[in-house]
TrEMBL record, chain A:
This is Metal ABC transporter permease. It is found in: Cell membrane; Membrane. Belongs to the ABC-3 integral membrane protein family. Gene3D superfamilies: ABC transporter involved in vitamin B12 uptake, BtuC. It is a multi-pass membrane protein. InterPro entries: ABC_BtuC-like (IPR037294), ABC_TroCD (IPR001626). PANTHER family: ABC-TRANSPORTER METAL-BINDING PROTEIN, METAL TRANSPORT SYSTEM MEMBRANE PROTEIN TM_0125-RELATED. The chain crosses the membrane at residues 6-29, 50-73, 85-104, 116-146, 166-199, 211-234, 240-258. Keywords: Membrane, Transmembrane, Transmembrane helix, Transport. SUPFAM superfamilies: ABC transporter involved in vitamin B12 uptake, BtuC (SSF81345).
From TrEMBL, chain B:
Belongs to the ABC transporter superfamily. It comes from Apilactobacillus xinyiensis. Keywords: ATP-binding, Nucleotide-binding, Transport. InterPro entries: AAA+_ATPase, ABC_transporter-like_ATP-bd, Metal_Ion_Import_ABC, P-loop_NTPase. It holds the Pfam family ABC_tran. One of its GO terms (molecular function) is ATP binding. This is ATP-binding cassette domain-containing protein. It comes from the Bacteria. Residues 5-215 form the ABC transporter domain.
Length: 264, 218
């Protein structure tokens, strides 16, 4: 299996995607912005089809759309973006917009499914380069704002009174998240990236109680899901997205049951 | 005793409505000032107004830096499955450095503050699994770990039973006397004012009157 270059690339890419999702996911879950993350993946879909419509690369459209909406949400404040109604409005609007751009671009519909579900076995070497650079960039920026980010994420009420850099920290985090979603969505699809950003971190918090521990565990959970998923998909010839989603769901169920029966 | 804060002729407003007019008082280091009054007279709004006008107001004059003030808010809504262990939650209060990890000195100050607030045995417990009273001590510890010069407690005792309230205030009093920290304590409870307050700023009819609470302490 590993003698095929496309499988090698898929395994390497999954490693870095898991790294990104582990780190960002812990903060996504702590900030309770899972649903905005979901919206962000829909925004990235509409951004990608905008890119196709313009005739440039989809990633450019994705980055423009997601970063702009991150700035908007970061400065308006998270309260609005957490409201259920505004999330549905955003989602619907951006999916509609994405469909419109695809129709206008006269593109093939296979493109749309590619963006939504990704093509983890269609990874090129240049995809890997972009992924590795993004991972490094996100690690560096997160390190620089780490103390403020953890205060703002794990004690948002306390930080709102005692820290003065909340807005800027929120915007930086959302921009990092936007980049993560845009770059990884090309590979695993915008629907699955939402799963990898939220489920492993939600499971990890039942087993680990430090930020480092939770990050490591969510990284491991993502990695198990993607690697085992790739293997099963190779063996069975069924879609890898299904296996990843199923494995992450099982891990989450185990975590919840473990917490229910063995902790309390 | 040093002056921490001077307020003179401050109008406290919520949107356009004036809640307190021409308020004047002083806060000195090492003292505990209670802010009392009915629900809705503007106690919390007043404290928020003070913090909002930290620098640019002639009515509010702080003699300390902004990061030497710690505000312990009334509500935090910690979920049952909130994961971070108590030790790390307290560490969130250490914000004056950029290093992503905590220095040895910082770790020591977390340990010390946990000993002072009787939390040492809970250091590795997730905050979501701690009781309400324990959580209040954790919030206090998080505020104290950065060695503030002014500590503002907003109804920190509202949800606690009588013994736990007295226990918490004893801790506050002990620690702040040692470190010469000024405390502003927003409360409803006349018993706590009598027992622990040095001053009582009572807000009534849009006015605030500062009185000394006499003959109680010592």
């Amino acid at each position: 299996m590993l003698s095929y270059p496309f499988m090698q690339y898929a395994f390497i890419a999954s490693f870095f995607i898991s790294l990104l999702c582990g780190l960002m996911g812990v903060f996504v879950v702590a900030r309770k912005t899972a649903f905005f993350t979901h919206t962000l993946s829909e925004i990235s879909f509409s951004g990608a089809s905008f890119g196709v419509f313009l005739g440039t690369s989809p990633i450019l459209g994705m980055l423009i759309f997601t970063i702009l909406s991150s700035f908007m949400v970061g400065s308006v404040g998270s309260r609005l973006s957490r409201r259920e109604s505004s999330i549905s409005v955003f989602s619907v609007f951006f999916i509609g917009l994405g469909v419109l751009f695809l129709a206008l671009a006269d593109g093939q519909s296979s493109y749309a499914t590619n963006i939504l579900f990704g093509s983890i076995v269609g990874i090129s070497f240049s995809n890997i380069v972009v992924l590795v650079s993004l991972s490094i960039a996100i690690l560096v920026v997160t390190t620089l704002i780490y103390r403020k980010l953890k205060y703002n994420s794990f004690d948002s009420v306390g930080a709102s009174f005692n820290s003065r850099s909340n807005t800027i920290v929120s915007i930086i985090f959302l921009v990092l998240l936007a980049c993560t979603v845009s770059v990884t969505a090309q590979i695993v699809g915008s629907l699955l990236i939402f799963a990898l950003l939220t489920i492993p971190a939600s499971s990890a918090k039942y087993f680990a109680h430090t930020i480092a521990g939770m990050t490591f565990l969510s990284f491991m959970f993502s990695l198990i899901g993607t690697w085992v998923g790739l293997y099963l998909s190779y063996v069975t010839n069924l879609p890898v997205s299904f296996f990843i989603a199923a494995i992450e769901t099982i891990i989450y169920l185990i975590a919840v049951l473990w917490d229910k029966f063995f902790v309390n | 005793m040093k002056k921490i804060l001077e307020v003179s002729n401050l109008d406290v407003k919520l949107k356009e409505r004036t809640l307190i007019s021409r308020l004047s008082f002083e806060i000195n280091s090492g003292t505990l000032t209670c802010i009392t009054g009915e629900n809705g007279v503007g106690k919390t709004t007043m404290v928020k107004t003070l913090l909002k006008n930290f620098k640019n107001n002639n009515h509010v004059n702080f003699h300390i830096k902004r990061n030497q003030v710690q505000y312990v808010p009334q509500l935090r809504n910690i979920d049952d499955d909130y994961p971070l262990m108590i030790k790390d939650f307290i560490g969130l209060g250490l914000q004056n450095k950029l290093l992503p990890w905590l220095s040895k000195k910082e770790k020591l100050s977390i340990e010390q503050v946990m000993n002072e607030t009787n939390l040492a045995h809970l250091a590795r417990t997730p905050l979501g699994k701690a009781s309400g009273g324990e959580q209040q001590r954790v919030f206090l510890a998080q505020a104290l770990v950065s060695n503030p010069k002014l500590l503002i407690l907003d109804e920190s005792t509202a949800s606690m039973d009588k013994d736990a309230k007295i226990e918490l205030l004893k801790l506050v009093k002990n620690i702040t006397e040692k470190t010469d920290t000024a405390v502003i304590f927003i409360t409803h409870d006349p018993l706590l004012v009598q027992k622990f307050g040095d001053y009582d700023l009572e807000i009534k009819n849009q006015e605030g009157i500062l009185k000394s609470v006499k003959g109680v302490n010592n």
